[in-house]
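pipeline stage [seq->struct] | target=FP protein C-terminal domain-containing protein | organism=Apolygus lucorum | residues=275
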Amino acid sequence: MCDNCKKAVRSSRLDQATSDTDKFKVLLESIEEIKEDMKRSNQTLRKDIEVQAGELSEIKEQLQKYSDHIDENTAKLVNLDKTVDTLVKKIDDMNDVQKRVDKQIVVLSDRINEIQQQSLGNVVEISGYPQLPDENIMQMIIKLGDVVGYPISEHMISDCYRIRQHRSDTRPGLLIVAFVRKIDKKGFYSAAWSKKDLNIRDVGIILGEPARIYVNNSLTPQNRKLLHACKEYKRTNSYKFMWVRDGRMFLKKDENSPRVNITSQEVLLRLASSA
């Protein structure tokens, strides 16, 4: 029976009592019933509280587990951050070492190139000289010396040969001439450059077009690339002069400008940025 129904029954009994004694008795019974109802309600409430307390305890345990996991993950993240910081420092240190090694490699490479160029100080390269059947290169060089006005004898030359070109290249191979003395190399080189428009007709070759013959300093592969870069820079930046002396390259804007010794591609870049 619901509480309202019980209240109505007690009120009805009280109304039916005719004497004060009966009414008092009904009141006592009602009070006892109310006490029993409260007792039962308290027991039910206590059970509900116990159930909820158990549920709260389980929730608390779960939260504690989550808290432990969070603390564990936080500790792992802290350790991971430390590991990352250590690795970043190691990478920075390795980069610093690599930069120093790269600089040393550049210095050593430049030094090797310098030594190689010095070893070519007595060597000239002759391009445009047609390749002849059963050619005698020594006699060809001696004849060329006579043509440019710097007589050459065999004892002045330590070696001479022709470099074969690629099969796809139709031009004759370069003639490489190594002089015993640097003074003879310089004399022949200067005489050849003093003779303007030196061509194959000058050496007695009458067949074909009168192709030019060029006498140049012998350069290392690195310096040859630098020479091409210097020529391109001269062309694109309207420089009037570009020349090679003892394997070193120079640029000059005009007659009134200072000469610039081009030792590397970086020098060309700096020259371009300052223009």
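stage status: PASS
auto-comment: The chain has three domains: 3-64, 122-218, 220-275. The chain has a mean pLDDT of 85.
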